[in-house]
Structures are given as structure tokens and as C-alpha cells.
Design brief:
This protein is mostly beta strands. Helix content is 5%, strand content 45%.
Length: 168
């Protein structure tokens, strides 16, 4: 993966941060198995070497290939808002949001039904669900589970959020 041309200002910033090799102009930090490098800068004002992240590339397995780009949780007045984006989906019936009081679990579904997936698509898709059963001020741990049409499943990494306080 290359970011800019050799000796460009952004490349030299990245070298200073230890993300790039000055000699070969490539990302030096490797991703963990099952992860990919992702550039994520919500402000997108100025590219930054700190905006390169190692993210889970898939949440499924060979039987449930869902390419997950992001999965985030945020406390809101109504509970916890969960948002995720897939880069592509293959034979995906839908998603289950799993929640636990501890990062180690046990995890249980937030709702009884599946959040419908796109089936098979090569296109990116954005999803959102608010966990309205979350108690205000309580910290929860979430996982996203994808369910294939044949019933096989895969899970994301765990993320954490504190439920928001309802407006007076």
C-alpha cells in the first residue's frame, strides 16, 4: 500500500511517525491476521499517518463471507447506537447484535429477529441499529454476528460503549 509519491510531505510525516519505510515507501506496520489496513479520518481535513488503522477484514469465515469495514457504538439518549458498514456480502441473511455486561461474555442477542442483510452484493452497505434496552449510564460490550442463508455464523471483534442518559 502506498500513500503519496516518494518524498511527498505526507510520506515524510508517516516516516517520522514510524508508519512508513523511508527507503521503500511502504507501510512498515503490519496488520494482524484477518485484518487489513484502513485509512479513517472523520474530519478528513488533512491526511495523517495516525489515521491508518488495523481493522478486522471479515467477520465471517469461508462459509459466511461478510467484509466488515467498520463497527462502532455510541451512547445516545435512547440507549446505544450501533453503526456498521460492509464492503461486500455473500449469501448473507442478516445480522444479530450480541451484547454482554463483560468483555468476556456471555453474549446474548439484543433482539429476537435478524437485521436483514443484502444477500450477495459487491457494493458497500451502511447499517444502523439503536439498542433501546440499554440502561442509561451502563457500559456494554457488543459483537456483530453475521448469519448466512445456510445458518452458519461469524462474529466481529468486541466493541464497548456506555448507554446515554435520556434527555429530561
Amino acid at each position: 500500500m502506498q500513500w503519496g509519491a516518494v518524498r511527498q510531505p505526507f510520506a515524510s510525516d508517516a516516516v517520522d511517525e514510524g508508519c512508513w519505510s523511508d527507503e521503500d515507501d511502504y507501510i512498515r506496520k503490519s496488520s494482524a491476521p484477518g485484518h487489513s489496513m484502513q485509512y479513517w479520518n472523520p474530519a478528513d481535513r488533512k491526511p495523517s499517518p495516525r489515521a491508518w488503522l488495523s481493522r478486522s477484514a471479515t467477520i465471517g469465515n469461508a462459509n459466511t463471507p461478510v467484509e466488515l469495514v467498520s463497527f462502532a457504538a455510541q451512547g445516545v439518549a435512547a440507549g446505544v447506537r450501533l453503526r456498521w458498514r460492509t464492503e461486500s456480502e455473500t449469501a448473507n441473511a442478516g445480522f444479530r447484535i450480541l451484547r454482554a455486561d463483560s468483555a468476556d461474555g456471555p453474549f446474548a442477542p439484543v433482539r429476537d429477529d435478524l437485521i436483514p442483510g443484502q444477500g450477495s452484493t459487491p457494493h458497500a452497505t451502511d447499517y444502523e441499529h439503536t439498542d433501546e434496552t440499554a440502561e442509561p449510564g451502563t457500559t456494554y460490550h457488543y459483537r456483530l454476528e453475521d448469519v448466512a442463508h445456510d445458518g452458519k455464523t461469524g462474529q466481529s471483534e468486541t466493541i464497548t460503549a456506555q448507554a446515554g442518559t435520556p434527555a429530561p
